[in-house]
Every structure is written in structure tokens, then in C-alpha cells.
Amino acid sequence: MNDKQTSQTTCIPVCILLWIFSCGTAFSATLTAQVDRNPAAENESVTYTLVVENPGREEPDWTPLEKDFEILNRSSSTNMQVINGSTSYSRRYRLSLMPRTTGLLQIPPIQVGKDRSNGIDLIVTLATSPQDKANKDLFLEVEATPENPYIHSQVLLTVKLFIALPLSQGALSEPSLDDVVIERLGEDNQYTTTRGSRQYRVIERRYALFPEKPGVMTVPSLRFEGTLGSRDSFFDPFSRRGPTKRIQSPPQTLTVRPEPENAPQPWLAAKKLQSSLEWSEPLDKIQAGTPVTATIRLKAQNCLAKFLPEPQLQSDDSLRTYSDQPQWEDTTDSQGLTGTVEKKITFIAPEAGTFVIAPWTITYWNTEKDEPDTVTIDGANLHVLPVPGTEEASPPPLAAGGVQSEEETPPTAQAVQSRSWKEQQHWFWISCFLAVGWAATGCAMLLRKKKTSVQPPEEQIRGDHGNLGKQLQQACRQGDAEAVRRLLGSAPRSLKTSQENTTQEQAAYLQQKTLLDKYLYSQSLPAEPWDGTALYDAWVALHKASRCKQQRTDEQIAQLYD
To answer: What pTM value is reported for the model?
Structure first.
């Protein structure tokens, strides 16, 4: 019973204290507003502080400040103090305000619940603007060249920020224009310079602008906003947050010229245009049926890659041509943007001979000379050689009368003929022994072919030519088109096909080989991966037919000697 009375007695004072505290909070809140300095300079922020004693749950209404001020950032903190058993609470709000105009501005009272703060009259003075920029602590310089560019040509925009104050942070705005392509050129460049008697840290930033419409082009003002930092002493590594400064550059006005009346078409403007042509193989060592690839590059200074024409080469109609998709690329440096386009074209000559590749001339407007200019990619002559083994070696030239002249006999041959018979007779007998051995081997092979005239099974045909057949079969199963093309180029002469007297097996093989070339060198990307099963079957059939034909020929020769 006593414990119950004791707990009830304890709860009553606690409730009374909570009621008293809530009442005190609700009826005794006071608001005090102040600024860190007065007057303030134009484009320089002031710190506005609002202290609420014994705050409740209500938050301040900052809407009245937005008429004459821009709120850059805000923060708040809560403080509690206990003095002689008395507890007090306060909440502190800190705002960074940037004045929108100059003159006498009124910071209106701020409403917090039912309470209002005091108002403040703030004087905002004009920023000093001496003619000598070296007297300023922070300023911007912007330069745009040239002032009268052509349409689609480059304008180099250089922005320099001069700093002679300790900054804890800052941000520089980016240029934004309609109907203009803007490319930033690399990273910012930082260095130190001297103006007058003051030393500045300079941050330099560059842009490449490409106007797409003629007429007046205005580069709007760029703005830098930075927060000053301060230290209590030289040994204090932590900087305090100071006021925010804002500066703007004057706008830049340019006149964009249209295309001249005598300008070449299609219109292409560049400071300099360069071209190059590279071949994958020497042009005097190309064999019939072997692909050779030409790589064409165009490189234009101060020009976007999308404005460059697609490279092309005109050739004889008898040449088979396969083109890759062109590749456009833009690169940047401190002087501007460089556009590059590259294209690869593959040529295949069906037969031996000389094939002509015509030159290609590009006409453009040279912005440095302000006149038309041309660049030419030289043509070429493809001297295509026959496939080795398709032509017999020509006999050595004979002297008049069909007899080789004795005067042309090499000195080494005369020295051999002058040797005595006794010195050379042992070589004579060795040669005779080898000749008899080769003759006996040839007779044995003829007899064996005559006895085994039965057609070999298909499995044996597929295994002929050793590693070549196995490698070709493996490459076809894996769908490796490049490897199959290399293996077919090294096939024996008996499997080489021609357009004359084409058999059924040869026609099927040529059809599959043409499909292989189309897959490898076609300009459009193939929809499905290449399947080499049909090509390998055609190759086996052709090999089989070639072997049967060779066996019939051997049998006919053997019958002549029976």
C-alpha cells in the first residue's frame, strides 16, 4: 500500500514539470535576426542568422526573402544550456543570401508560428570596377576567335579565371547556345601569372563551338560562384566558410558567315585536310583470288567528323569489291577539335593482269587561307600474278639458229667440263644406281595402281591430304571463316577450279566458295553465323572426283605399256 502511494506521489511532480516546460515553450519563444556585415558589396553574399529561443515544432517561412535575395544555402543547429538548474533551448538558422539588386534592401521579418523576428535594412553598394583588372581579387576573361566564322567551322572559346583570394570551393558555369555544337577541349589548365603588381592563380578552360546557322551568334555571360575560406592562423589546417562571391563575364557577339558563292559542294570547312591510303599487301605481289585491302583515312583540323565525306575508290568492274562501314571519330587538343573518318575496301582479282584504281579528289574550304582547296588520294595499279603452278616455266632463250651459244656458257660450267673422267667416274656410277632404283620404284607403283583400281571409300577421301583435310574439316565445323579461307588458298593444284569445262562438283564448290567470300567481305553485317558444312561436303566431292579422274588417267597410261 505504501509503495503504491509512493509511485503516485512521484508521478505527480514529473507531470507538473512537463506541463510547466511545455507552457514555457509555447508562450516565451523569442526571435532575433542579424547579418554578418552591413553594408555589403554587389555580387557578394551575406550571412543571415536567425536565433529562436525556446523553439517549438514550427519552422520558419523563408518565402519573403526570395523577392530581393537568392538563398544559396542554409543550415541549422540546436543548443541546450543548464544554468543553476534552469534549462534553456535555442535553435540557430544560418542562410547565405545573395542580393539581387543594389541599394537599400529590406530583409523582412520572418514568421515562426505566431512569432515574428525583427527586420533588417541592408545597404548593397556597387562593385568597384577600376579599369586596371590587376586591382581586382577575382575576375573572368573570355575570348572567342575568329569573330566572323563560317557556318560549320570552329570557334575557339577560351575562358580564364583569375584568383587572388583563398577559395574553399567554387563552380564555373558552362556555355549553352541553340543551334551550336559545343565540345569541351580536355581538362582545365592551371598556372600562375602576374598582372600589374599582383600575382594570380589562373584556371583556363577551352571549348570548340561549331555554329549550324548563319547570322548573329551571342555567347552568353559565364558565371563563377565561389566561397571564400579563412584561417585563424598559419598553423590552422582547417579553413572556415566565408562569404560567397559571384562574378560574370561580358557576353561575346559573333557574326557567322554563310557558304561563299564560289564554295565547293558539298560544303566542308576545315583549317587543314589530310588524306592517307595504305595497302595490306605490296601491289606487285598480289595473286589472283587473293584479297587485298585498302585503308583510306581523312583527317580534318577544326572540323567535326560527321561533316567529312565517306571515303571511296573507283575500280575496274572486273574486280570484286567489299567495303566495311566507315568509322568516324573526334579527338581534341588544346588548339581545337580534329575529325577523322576511316574506311576499308577489299579488292579480289579473279585472274592475272593489271587493274586500275582511279584517284579520288576532295574539294573543301580552307578556313586558314579563306579559299577553296583540294586533297587527292592517289590511285594505284594492281599487278595481279597468276597462281603458282598454273603456268609452265619458259625455257631459257636460245641463240640464233636454235642452238645455245657457247660464249654464254657460265665459267663454272666450263670448269666442270674440264675435269678429267677419272675424277668424276665414281659420281657416274652413283647416278646410274639411283636411276635404276627410281625406275624400279615407278614400275612397282604402276603395277599396284593397276591392281587396285577399285574406287576408295568416302571416309578415305575425307582423310586425304593429311593435315589439310583434318584442319579444313575442323574449321568448317567451328564456323571459322577466316581459317577456312586461308586453308583453301593453300589447297593443292588438283583442287583449283576454273570457269572452263566446269563439272558438277566444281560448280558446287565454286558456289560455296563465293558464299564464303560474300560472308567475309560483304559491306553489310551477316544476320547469322557462317555454317561451313556445305562447303566441306563440296570440297570432299571435288576431291573425290579429282582422284577418280587421276586414276582413270593412270589406267589409260598403264594400258599403253601392257
So the answer is: 0.55
